[in-house]
Specification:
Metallo-beta-lactamase, Chain A; RibonucZ/Hydroxyglut_hydro; MBL_Glyoxalase_II; alpha/beta; 14 strands; six-stranded mixed sheet; globular; 211 residues
Length: 211
C-alpha cells in the first residue's frame, strides 16, 4: 500500500491518498479544493481506480473538492451523520465564514458511527468518533499499519479550533483522551493540517490536552 500526503486548497488542508496497485484500488481521505487535479496523475501512475472517498468531517476545507471527485470517479462516500448538514448543504457554512465559498454538496453513501469497522484495500479500519472540533469529526484507524487519520481533532503540538458552530473545548479534550490517547503510543497520527505526529509525542508534549 502506498500513502500520498497531498496538501491542497486555500488553507493547505491535507488529503491522504492510499493506493494498492496489486488490487488496482485507492481510497481518498478528505477532499480539499483542487484535489482532483493533484491525485489524477498519482492514480494513473499507481495504476489504480479511486473507489472510496472518506470525509473526516464536514468543514468546507475538507469537502470543497468532494463533488468533483465523485463526478470524476464515482467513488463511494463515507462520513458521520452529525455533519450531514454541512456535507450535503455546505452553503450553510458561508454564514459563519462570512464569504461565498462556491461549495457543492455531496450525498453520503455510508454513514458510520463510533466502533464501526470498514474494509478497505484489504485492511480492517476502525472508526472512532472524535467530536469537539465539530460534531461529526471521525478518525480512521488502520491498526495493522499503525496509523490513524484524525481529521482536525489533534495536530502536532496543537488541537482543532472549537470556536465554530458545534465546537466544544471540553468535548474535544474528552474525545482526545478517550479516543486518541488510548491508541498504541507508536501509532502515527495523520492530521488535517501540518505534519504527522505520534500518540506518544502528543501525550508527552501537547500543551492543550494532557493524558
Amino acid at each position: 500500500m502506498n500513502l500520498h500526503v497531498i496538501p491542497a486548497g486555500p488553507i493547505q488542508t491535507n488529503a491522504y491518498l492510499l493506493t494498492d496497485p496489486a488490487r488496482g484500488e485507492a481510497v481518498l481521505i478528505d477532499a480539499p479544493g483542487g484535489i482532483w487535479a493533484k491525485i489524477a496523475p498519482k492514480l494513473a501512475s499507481d495504476g489504480v481506480k479511486l473507489t472510496e472517498l472518506w470525509i473526516t468531517h464536514g468543514h468546507w476545507d475538507h469537502t470543497q473538492g468532494a463533488a468533483e471527485i465523485v463526478r470524476e470517479t464515482g467513488a463511494k462516500t463515507l462520513g458521520h451523520r452529525a455533519d450531514k448538514t454541512m456535507i450535503e448543504t455546505p452553503e450553510v457554512m458561508e454564514d459563519f465564514m462570512g464569504a461565498k465559498l462556491g461549495l457543492e454538496g455531496i450525498t453520503i453513501d455510508q454513514w458510520v458511527e463510533e466502533g464501526d469497522t470498514v474494509e478497505a484495500l484489504g485492511e480492517a479500519v476502525e472508526i472512532r468518533h472524535v467530536p469537539g472540533h465539530c460534531p461529526g469529526n471521525i478518525m480512521f484507524v488502520f491498526s495493522a499499519l499503525g496509523s490513524a487519520f484524525v481529521g482536525d481533532a489533534i495536530f502536532a503540538g496543537s488541537v482543532g479550533r472549537t470556536d465554530l458552530p458545534g465546537g466544544s473545548s471540553e468535548e474535544l479534550a474528552a474525545s482526545i483522551r478517550s479516543r486518541i490517547y488510548t491508541l498504541n503510543d507508536e501509532t502515527t497520527l495523520y492530521p488535517g493540517h501540518g505534519p504527522a505526529t505520534t500518540v506518544a509525542q502528543e501525550k508527552a508534549t501537547n500543551p492543550y490536552v494532557r493524558p
